[in-house]
Write a structure and sequence with these properties.
The complex is a heterodimer.
Chain A: E1 5-7, E2 10-13, E3 19-24, E4 31-37, E5 44-50, E6 53-56, E7 65-68, E8 75-79, E9 88-95, E10 104-105, E11 109-113
Chain B: E1 3-5, E2 10-14, E3 19-21, E4 24-26, E5 31-38, E6 44-50, E7 56-58, E8 64-68, E9 73-78, E10 87-95, E11 102-103, E12 107-112
Parallel strand pairs in B: 2-12
Antiparallel strand pairs in B: 1-4, 3-9, 5-6, 5-10, 7-8, 8-9, 10-11, 10-12
The chains are: A mainly beta, B mainly beta.
């Protein structure tokens, strides 16, 4: 079974530039999550999709972050413009719907903003 | 408000000894509890979960966790640690089917030969 795919694995940009991350979840997983993991901290949920609809984006900084999952499969997360404090690992995860189901995580994208 | 706490930033244990990584949670209803492990430059991997039923849950790689409702804890345990268990461990809690996951800050486990 193929896992959650993410690209790129690493990205270095200057502040005020824009960047986009891509995620392809496990086939059949209707729920997709984007997390931000700052060094030394646990993952923080940015946005959760159920198929192509947003379930929770309460912690997404909407003035600079956006995400979409147009066809209910793969998803993109964009930051525009980036700030120094956006330096983190961005993790994508997917699961079957329902709170009892565990999430499966991709390898993450390490973003460095200089 | 929901939250989860991992009181130890780091746990050191000798290979072959038992290990415990602590987790306490706070939810207003019945929790779904999870443990994940993260190796360097890798995503999080699921270890085990408690949904309902038996308080002792067994998971991958010989790990187990005990759900204690009165103490609101879900400590991760292993009878005999391996050097290869050295990694970052995260506890997570979710209340119900539609609420978000809350992750703890993580505990770094160091197993020395």
């Amino acid at each position: 079974e193929a896992g959650v795919a993410q690209s790129p694995r690493y990205k270095i940009i200057e502040k005020r530039q824009s960047v986009a991350f891509w995620c392809n979840p496990i086939s059949g997983h209707a729920t997709l999550y984007w997390y931000q993991q700052i060094l030394g901290q646990g993952p923080k949920l940015l946005i959760q999709f159920q198929n192509n609809g947003v379930v929770d984006d309460s912690q997404l900084p909407k003035d600079r972050f956006s995400a979409e999952r147009l066809k209910g499969v793969d998803s993109t997360l964009k930051i525009q413009p980036a700030k120094l404090e956006d330096s983190a690992v961005y993790l994508c995860a997917s699961s079957f719907p329902g709170g009892a189901n565990q999430q499966y995580f991709g390898p993450g994208t390490r973003l460095t903003v200089t | 408000a929901q939250s989860v706490a991992q009181p130890e930033d780091q746990v050191n244990v000798a290979e072959g000894n038992p290990l415990t990584v602590k987790c306490t949670y706070s939810v207003s209803g019945n929790p779904y509890l999870f443990w994940y492990v993260q190796y360097p430059n890798r995503g999080l991997q699921f270890l085990l979960k408690y949904i309902t039923g038996d308080n002792l849950v067994k998971g991958s790689y010989g790990f187990e966790a005990e759900f204690n409702k009165s103490q609101t804890s879900f400590h991760l345990k292993k009878p005999s640690a391996l050097v290869s268990d050295s990694a970052l461990y995260f506890c997570a809690v979710r209340e119900g089917n539609f609420n978000k996951f809350y992750f703890g800050s993580g505990t770094k486990l160091n197993v020395k030969p």
